Amino acid sequence: MTAPHPLDRPVWSMLTGRQTHLAEGDARALRIDRGYGVFGAAADPGDEAQTALAALVPADGEIWIIEDAPWPLPPGTREVKRAVLAQMVADGALPQARPGEPAIVALGDADAPEMAALADHARPGPWGPKTHLYGPFFGIREEGRLLAMAGQRMLMPGMAEVSGVATWADCRGHGYARTLIGHVMRAMALRGETPFLHSYADNAGAIALYESLGFRIRREVHVLAIAKD
């Protein structure tokens, strides 16, 4: 029997693997440190694991479940939303820096307030007060203003997720996202990691951009956001 691929259950894989140090819970169900975000997963769809996952849902927040098939609603929770994601893996030549690209700077703790404001504006995905600590984040600045950013989130064996790609609305159309994603991909490759990412399956524009950077759709996965009933 073929072992499941880590990307088939990305949240469970990250919290039981390279990012177990960020996990809260036990062998039945896990969620990520609440400062980092909202991702959680049960060991299986059985009653015991589902009940344990429901217990990890905060009274005033959500848990997002990402699985290879639609996930049943845990007891005592309500559905906030369901969506289909395109899971994409870079399988070709890495995009190279182009002449005239703007300078890229590393982002850190001092940049966290600006990164949070940009994330709140652009909505690249769940963002918490520690999300910028997932790993290297990079940005483009002009006259001190952070115009765009990109970084990483989930880590799998030999793989890393491109995430947090965000640009202010008045700064779009200059190729900043392309520049930053390419930089993040090359940084991952230097560490021996294959880049992957998730995009809403109906976001044709984003998927076209990712395909032009060498990503290909691996499969569709399903996200379920839940809150206390």
Quick overview of this protein structure:
The protein has helices spanning 10-15, 47-55, 112-122, 176-190, 204-212, and strands at residues 23-25, 29-32, 40-42, 63-67, 77-90, 105-107, 137-142, 145-156, 159-167, 194-200, 215-228. The chain has 229 residues and is of the alpha+beta class.
In helices, the fraction of residues equals 10-25%
The strand line-up of the biggest sheet is 4-11-5-10-9-8-7-6
**What Rg is obtained from the alpha carbons, in whole angstroms?**
18 Å
**Total domain units:** 2
The structure class reads alpha+beta
Q: Label the CATH architecture of the largest domain.
A: 3-Layer(aba) Sandwich
Give the number of DSSP strands. Answer: 11
Detailed description of the structure:
This protein is of the alpha+beta class and 229 residues long. The protein folds into 2 domains: 6-83 and 224-228, Aminopeptidase; 88-220, Aminopeptidase, CATH 3.40.630.30. It is 22% helix and 35% strand. It has 5 helices and 11 strands, in the order H-E-E-E-H-E-E-E-H-E-E-E-H-E-H-E. It has helices at residues 10-15, 47-55, 112-122, 176-190, 204-212, and strands spanning 23-25, 29-32, 40-42, 63-67, 77-90, 105-107, 137-142, 145-156, 159-167, 194-200, 215-228. An 8-stranded mixed sheet has the order 4-11-5-10-9-8-7-6. A 3-stranded antiparallel sheet has the order 1-2-3. A hairpin with a 2-residue loop joins strand 7 (137-142) and strand 8. The radius of gyration is 18 Å and the shape is globular. The model has no long low-confidence stretch (mean pLDDT 96).
